[in-house]
Amino acid sequence: MQKNIFYPKNAIRLCLANQKQEHFDGILYSCVRKEGFAFSNFTSFIMLTDEILDYLGTPQSFQERRTFNTKKRHLCIDQLMIHEDCSYIYEQSGKAGTYDIIITTRQKSDWQGIVKCRNKILGEFKSILELMYILI
Q1: How far is CA 75 from the centre of its chain?
Q2: Which residues of 43-78 are buried (b: 16+ CB within 10 A; e: fewer)?
Q3: Do the beta carbons of residue 92 and residue 13 sit within 8 Å?
Q4: How far apart are the first and last CA of the chain?
């Protein structure tokens, strides 16, 4: 019998193809889709991750979004499903870097959490700007 491997719902694996500020692209993986989500810049990475966290409901956003558009921009919610066995995430890696980002809270319209690389903590961040500083 295969053992289920746990991956936190509030975490994403970031597999970078390019790590430079002007060419920040790659694929992010979470427990909601095995194929991952491609992104082409830091802004699209933030938007995708925020939508995944909203879908999961964890960590809960402390401020409700105000928008006239009820549709999400990137994700097709009907194609998402929370997977209990997340061993596929641990098999993924990026050419320029692989990071596990654990978002512990979302306060003041920002993220707070830690960044890991190969199970070692690279740093803590209290804002998306600090996260960008750690990654780039």
Answers
A1: 13
A2: ebbebbbbbbbbebeebeeeeeeeeeeeeeeebeee
A3: yes
A4: 41
**Amino acid identity, position 90:** Y
Distance CA(101)–CA(125), nearest Å, equals 10
How confident is the model over 51-103, as pLDDT tens digits? Answer: 899 888 887 665 555 555 555 555 665 678 888 888 999 999 999 999 999 99
CB 34 within 8 A of CB 83: yes
* Gap between the Cα atoms of 90 and 34, Å rounded: 11
DSSP letter for 39, please.
E
Note the pTM of the prediction, 2 decimals: 0.83
CA atoms of 8 and 25, how far apart (whole Å): 23
